[in-house]
Amino acid sequence: MLHTIREQVDTIFREDPAARSVLEILLCYPGFHAVLLHRFAHRLYRWRVPLIPRVLSQISRWLTGIEIHPGATIGRRFFIDHGMGVVIGETTEIGDDCLLYQGVTLGGTGKEKGKRHPTLGNHVIVGTGAKILGNIRIGSDVRVGAGSVVLKPVPDHSTVVGIPGRVVRARMEPQEPLAHGELPDPEGQAISDLTQRVEQLEALIKEFAGQQPRR
Question: Whole-angstrom Cα distance, residue 117 to residue 147?
């Protein structure tokens, strides 16, 4: 357990430049509290201890604003930054060195049984407010832009943005950060292209109207 705590503290120092001290992390980081409580609850869940894992999950939700079902499988060096509003479903699987921002949902799409939540590979970063829904695989070294809704599998080394999520960049360098302000905007680009096309058509109509002889 001490090794897990130490590794989690080191992860926060690595991922969050605002972290100033170990004491600050121990007292003031809800993501840290939620992950540690989940690891304990998950162990009880695997031992088939009734009710208590869900009670611990609920207590964690009250304390941190982060809801992680005790059945979710989470790898090492996992970090939830800020964390309020994060929801992680029962059959979710998360690899090593993943990072979630606030408002992220790793959820299902209905009342299906069995594996119904996403699987994330290693080194995945999911931006603020993004939703990844259903039994789909998000590959390793993937970046999901803020506010995206991902409903289909995403290959390794990709960036996905938009509603629904679209792969806009492939073959990223491993460990490349999620540059929120530099992500492509497919919807915005489509609107810009449409606006430009309308302006061109208006110009052609005016030109055509000017060439018509007056009676």
Answer: 18
Buried-exposed string 77-99: b where 16+ CB fall within 10 A, e elsewhere: bbbbbbbeebbbbbbbbbbebbb
Closest C-alpha to 136, from 148, 193, 205, 24? 148
- Which residues, including other chains, have CB under 8 Å from residue 22's CB and lie 6 or more apart? 9
Q: Supply the Cα-derived Rg of the chain in whole angstroms.
A: 22
DSSP string, 81-101: SS-TT-EE-TT-EE-SS-EE-
* pLDDT tens column, 20-62: 999 999 999 999 999 999 999 999 999 999 999 999 999 999 9
Please tell me the distance from the alpha carbon of residue 85 to that of residue 129, in angstroms, as a whole number. Answer: 9
Any residues with CB less than 8 A from the CB of 77 and at least 6 apart, and which? Answer: 7, 8, 10, 11, 96, 97
pTM above 0.90, yes or no: no
Do you find a cis peptide bond into 164, omega within 30 degrees of 0?
yes
What tokens does 33 get? 């509290």
Place of tokens 């604003």: 65
68-117 pLDDT, tens digit each: 999 999 999 999 998 899 999 999 999 999 999 999 999 999 878 899 99
